[in-house]
Each structure stands twice: as C-alpha cells, then as structure tokens.
Amino acid sequence: MAGDGGSGKAVGSTEALSLLLRTVEALITDFSTDVNVVLAPLATAALRETTDDIWLSEVLESFGWQGTCFTRPVDVRCLCSRLKALMFDGLQEKGKGSYAVVYKARDRLTGEVITLKKLRLDREDEGVPGTAIREVSLLKELQHENIVTLKDVLWDSSRLYLIMEYMDMDLKEHMDTNASAADLGNIKYYMYQMLKATAFAHAHRIMHRDLKPQNILVDRHTHRLKVADFGLARCFTPPIRPYTHEVVTLLYRAPEILLSSPLYGMAVDLWSIGCVFAELVTGQPLFMGDSEIGQLFAIFQILGTPNEALWPGVTRIRDWAATFPQWPARDLAEVVPRLDPAGLDLLRQLLRYDPDQRITARKALEHPYFDAVRDPPPASVPSLRQEAMASLEVLAGTLPAHLQQNADLADERESDDPGSSMLDQGASPRADAEQLREHAAVRFACFARPAL
Q1: Nearest CA to 365 among 375, 357, 355?
Q2: Protein kinase domain spans which residues (predicted)?
Q3: Residue 82: its pLDDT value, please?
Q4: In 10 A of CB 34, how many CB atoms?
Q5: What is the DSSP letter of 89?
Q6: How many CB atoms lie within 10 A of CB 176?
Q7: Is 40 in contact with 69 (CB distance < 8 Å)?
Q8: Measured between alpha carbons, how far is 117 from 94 in angstroms, rounded to an integer?
Q9: pLDDT of residue 2
C-alpha cells in the first residue's frame, strides 16, 4: 500500500503500472505462460515510469525481482493484490475498530475516492478472522442500493484489505454534527432506506445482528443511506439453531438476546431499527443501560415489565427471573413526543416484546408512516400478471361464440346464484366470472388451431 497508514505518494503516470497489473490479473488463471518472460519487461517499464515511487520497487523486490527479472517463482495472485494496493494513495484514517482500521483513499487510476478497511493478520496459525470472511462473503451476495458495495478484496501475508465505496460519514457522526439529521422528513427517508436494506438482507436469509448508527453510512448531501459492517451478520437456514448471544451493541440489543433465549431470528434486527428510530427523533439512545441486566431494566422501565400475556413463553426463557421489578409501561408519545401518530404506531410495532409479533422489515415498508416517501411502482415495468391479463383481454375478444356465452352466463350467475359451489370456497361472484373468462381465453390460446 503506497504510504500504508500515511498520506501516500502519488506518481504522475500509471499507464505502465496499470498494464503490469492487468497482465498479472490475467496470469492468475493462465497456467501455461512463463510468468517471468511476460512480466519482466512490463515490470522494467513500470519501474522506469514510477522512478519517484519506492513502493513499487519494494513490492517487486519482495517477490524476487533483481534488476531485470524475477529470480524465483512468482505467486501471481499475491503479487496482484500487492500491485492493486499501490493504486491507492492519499490515505486518511477515518476510524479504528477491534480488528480493523478504516481509511479514506483515492484510486490513482480513476480518481475515485474509496473506503479501505485494513485488517491485520497478526498470527499465521489463526489465518483470516472469521468476521472478515463472513463480511466478504455476505457483501458479495448482497448487491443493493442501500447496502455498502464491496469493490475488491486484497491481501498479502500479513494484511487483508477490503475496498468499498466511500460515504461521507456514519449516521452517529451525522446526528452529532448536522442539524438536518433531526429533520422529521429526513428521518422518515433514513428509516425507509434502512428497512429496504434490511428487508433485502432478510429475503436472502441474512440477519445483520449489529444495526446501530455507527454501522449505517450517510451521504450528508443527498441523504442516501447504506448499511455497512456485516462482520457479525449471519446467514440462516431452517431448521433454526442456537446462535451466540455476543452480538448487537448493548444499547440496540433485543430483549430475547438479553434474556439468553436459545433461539432468535430476524426480529432482532427490527428491534435494533426501532432503537435507532427513536434515537434519530430524540437525539439520544432510547434504552441506556451499562450492563446486560441494566439494559434489560432500562427497557422494562419504558415498555413495562413483560409477562405471559405480552410475550408468551417469556417466563420460560433461561435468564428470566420471577423477582424482576414490575414496572408499568409508559406512553411512547411522552417518551418520543416529536413523532406523529403513524410514526408512533410503527415504533410500537418495531419494539414489541414478542419476536413473533414484531413487525417484519417487509411489512414495515408498507406502513402508512412511509406513504410520503414510498417508492412508486415502476410504470414502465408491468407485472407478469398485468401483461398476461392484457393479452387475455385482447384474446378474449376473438373467442368463439360458445366460449363468450359461457363467460356471459357466469356474469349472470353472479346475481342469480349466490350459493354456488365456488362461493362456498370463498371466491367472490365477480372473481368467478373473471376466472371463467381467463380459463376460456387460456384454453382457446392453447388449443386453437393455427391459421393455414
């Protein structure tokens, strides 16, 4: 990495270096070419072009380069990653986590600003952290406008780099520094995008398990939002099995996790989204505990201590105690006073104790709270059923007389025979008539003899 961890040093021209990189990429899957013969002249040209950049020279020498050729077999896959790393400069540290450092950088070839997440592989025997493998695999699968895009993955013997699209800041920073984050219209737009990303992930059987303002990125100019940091995410398939409880930052952790329920699912993400929703509106976390039991009691003090009526089975969860204090529920309209009735209703459904009764991401997108921001259906892309019905209407006009009569008789039965067998099955009279028309049209389309 040019200037790894520092400012980096750009070079004026990168044409030869770019050609070297493209050739190395091609050689990864080419096992018949003499790598040294192909790469030696390209490496020489790249070094000549970038005489003021010591990083390229150091990289090539680490692979056995001595003046005019490589003196040992070249690991082209590893060399490719090291060369790609040279294509980024202007590194600025943006944040540091438990296992990664995040930088803002610039692609020297395209000029594009990107986010570079560097993971140090401290111990060879441990290999790549499981969180990194999980994040890479899931981001490769989740291609969505409201989920951060993973552009590339680079690695060498001691480091792994995730190259992702760049966003201005996370939602927490946005809330702390920009008054526009508290605008109720913007909050509605943020929530809608957050739920779209979550619904998409859940449709792919992936739960994020760490939704919080710090893991949601925002473009402060366009208010475009993207969910990031899938290091704790999990792909789940039936049958549901127990998962770890060491997930979700404490302030956004669902009560079923806090109580050590052996099974939990997608509903934990919706609880977290509800917590973020309230925080966006009030400017501070809704439930503020300093320990797991403290967090649980903070929830009870606002939503009331749950019971079997509110949450069937809660008293049988492992960490439930009959001695828990009994707090009455507070009115959320007093806790989050800026929200309108529709917003309060959505918040209540997101924060239901019973995970089975908690609203899903897909259903939340249909909530009246989002009527003003909901995406309109694409006018130019009719559904398959709409296209089929349009074709059937045209076709029905050419039906033989006896089939037309059958459909007309069905219309008449709509008023004459309210106790027909179809009605007994729950279908409406009008639906019966339309069903016959469709059936007749399909039969005609399938069995009519072609014109000679």
Answers
A1: 375
A2: 88-370
A3: 85
A4: 9
A5: E
A6: 12
A7: yes
A8: 10
A9: 53
- DSSP letters, 131-177, are HHHHHHHHHHH---TTB--EEEEEE-SSEEEEEEE--SEEHHHHHHH
31, 42, 281, 362 from 28: Cα distances, Å: 8, 16, 51, 42
At residue 397, the pLDDT reads 52
- Give pLDDT tens digits for 367-385: 999 999 987 655 544 444 4
- Reported as half-sphere exposure (CB side, CA atoms, 13 A), residue 258 has a value of 26
Burial of 238 (0-12, 13-18, 19+ CB in 10 A): exposed
pLDDT at 248: 62
Q: Which residues are catalytic?
A: 210
pLDDT at 30: 83
Nearest to 59 by CA among 156, 160, 151: 156
pLDDT at 44: 92
End-to-end CA distance of the chain: 72
Q: Peptide bond preceding 325: is omega within 30 degrees of 0, i.e. cis?
A: no
Nearest to 75 by CA among 90, 55, 95, 60: 60
The residue length of the chain stands at 452
Report the alpha-carbon distance of residue 55 to residue 85 in Å, rounded: 10
Spans in the chain with pLDDT lower than 50: 3-12, 239, 242, 245, 380-385, 395, 398-400, 402-452
Q: From the centroid of its chain, how far is CA 251?
A: 21
DSSP state of 359: P
Pick from 7, 16, 153: which is nearest to 93 by CA? Answer: 7
